[in-house]
Amino acid sequence: MALRTDWLPTIHSLRAWALLLVSIVLGVAGCDKGPPITQVSGKVTFQGQPVSEGVINFALESGFGVQAVLAGDGSYRLLSHHGKGIPLGSYKVTIAPPSFDPVPADMSNPPPPQPPYSNIPQRYRNFDTSGFTAEAGESDNVFDFDMKP
Fold it and tell me: For the domain bounded by 37-99+118-147, which CATH number is listed?
């Protein structure tokens, strides 16, 4: 009884399959690169004084947005799911008070009243009225924002 080998792949077809598999793996790995990103940092002040509590928000027209919590000296550094920075582009910017937990359902122990944060005027809390913009370019970017009453 003879062993049939006519069904076995030839060396040429094995090489072709290996080349195809390597090409697919390299192609998929190259697709995960994502958009170019840039470093963004800066400082937020109100009439020249650091704003030590709050968040700064950057938003692209495409809908991508990122925020950073302000440090005690008013400084911030933006990080996103793209890496240590944000995609290049023109951003609208807002500054808002820190977020608070929602009001609990059991109002027998209500949360303390939220401070007014008079050092963050209402107009800077909205993208349409803040007037702040930032053009994130290829090199590291430093954007300082000084709010006025």
Answer: 2.60.40.10
